[in-house]
Amino acid sequence: MDEATVNDAASGKASAGRPRVVLGVSGGIAAYKACELLRRLTESGHDVRVVPTASALNFVGAATWSALSGHPVSTEVWDDVHEVPHVRIGQQADLVVVAPATADTLAKAAHGLADDLLTNTLLTARCPVVFAPAMHTEMWEHPATRENVATLRRRGALVIEPASGRLTGVDTGKGRLPEPAEIFEVCRRVLARGADAAVADLAGRHVVVSAGGTREPLDPVRYLGNRSSGKQGYALAAVAAARGARVTLIEANTGLPDPAGVDVVRVGTALQLREAVLKAAADADAVVMAAAVADFRPAEYASGKIKKKDGQEPAPVALVRNPDILAEISADRAHPGQVVVGFAAETDDVLANGREKLRRKGCDLLVVNEVGERKTFGSEQNEAVVLTADGGETPVPYGPKEALAEIVWDLVAPQLG
C-alpha cells in the first residue's frame, strides 16, 4: 500500500469514484428490508456505512450490517471517539438515506435532537438527505408527524411518501416502506444530480403526471388502444419525487411497478383519466400530460362479445370524440400560476405539427417526439424537442427517458409561482 493510500485510509476518504453513502436504519420491523437496499448500493459501487439506532439492532444485528457493508457498525458517539465519528461520518457523506425512518427518528431530525450516532450524523451532514418513512397509518397521519415531515421538507430533505399495503400484523394502509429497489432508484437519481440535489427544487410542490395509454372498450373482450408503455410518464413521476415533489401519478394500463414515494391512481379509459386528472389538478402546481389519450371511443358498447358471422362483413364501428383533457386544463387552470405540460407524438412534420398543437392546446410547454412502430414506444430511450409558449426550443438528444424527465422539470421549476 503506497503512502497516498495509507493517508486516504487514515483520513476516511472514499476510493476515487466511489460515492460515500450513509445508510441510517431506525427501529422498525421494516429494518430487515434495508439489507436489500444495502446490497443494491454496495453492488452498484457505493461505499456504504450503516448507522443503525439501538432499537434497530433488535431487528437486525450489528454483525449483519458489518458483514454486508465491510465497515464497523456502532450506534454510539463514544465508540472510536478519537476519530470523532459523530462529526466525520456526516461530513464525508455524499448521501444520507434513512430507511426505514420511524416517527421517532423523523421527530428527532426535525427538532435537531442528537442523542445517538445517527441523529448526530444527520446534524453534521451537508449532503442530500433522504428519509424513507415506515410506520403504522395512524402514526403517519398524526398531525405531529405531518408537521415534522413538513419541517424536514422545508429544510431541503427528501421525505418520500410511504407505500400502501400490509403493515405489521393484520393491519393494512399507508405507511409501508417502499420496496428497496425503488428506494435505491431514488438514491441513484439524487446522487446523479450531484450538487443540484442538495436543493430539492420541487419541495413543497404538488405535481400531477399522467402515463400510459387509455383503452376504449368495444365489447367485453376488445378495445381501441395504443402502443404507449407509460415509461416516460413513470420517469417524470420518479424524477419529480427525487426532486422533492409530492407526486400524483395517474396511470392507464401500464403494468409498471409503483415508483417510490408516488401516489398512484389507476384508470382505464379517457373519461376515467379526465375525471382523475381534474380531481388531482385542483391543488397541483404543475400537470404533465404524458399519457397517450385516445382521441375517439366507440359510440356504442356491446354488452356481449361481437361474433363474426359466416358470409357477412362486420358492421362499421362508429366513433365519437373523447374530451381534449390537455386543452381543457390549459384553458381552465385550477389556480393562477399552474404550469401545464403536454406531449405530442408525431409521425411527420414533427416540429411544425408540434408548434400548431402547442398553440391549439394552450399549454406552457409541449414535448414533441417522433414515434413509430420501432420508435419510442416501449423503449427505455427517447429523443424529443421541448417547445415553450414563448417560442423557445430545447432539443433533448437520444438517451434515457429519465434524462428527458430531468430537462422537463428543469424547465417547469422556474415557472412555478
Can you describe this structure in just a few lines?
This protein is α/β, with parallel strands linked by helices.
What would you say this structure looks like, in words?
It is a single chain. With 417 residues, the chain is α/β, with parallel strands linked by helices. The chain contains 14 helices and 19 strands. 33% of the residues lie in helices and 24% in strands. An eight-stranded mixed beta sheet has the order 12-11-8-13-16-17-18-19, sandwiched between helices. Strands 2-1-3-4-5 form a five-stranded parallel beta sheet, with helices on both faces. The longest helix is centred in the middle third of the chain and has 13 residues, at 180-192. The model is unreliable at 1-15 (pLDDT under 50). The chain has helices at residues 3-11, 34-43, 62-69, 85-91, 103-111, 117-124, 137-141, 143-154, 180-192, 231-242, 270-281, 325-331, 350-361, 401-412, and strands at 20-25, 47-52, 95-101, 129-133, 158-159, 163-166, 172-176, 206-212, 216-217, 223-224, 246-252, 262-267, 286-289, 296-298, 319-321, 339-346, 365-370, 381-388, 393-400.
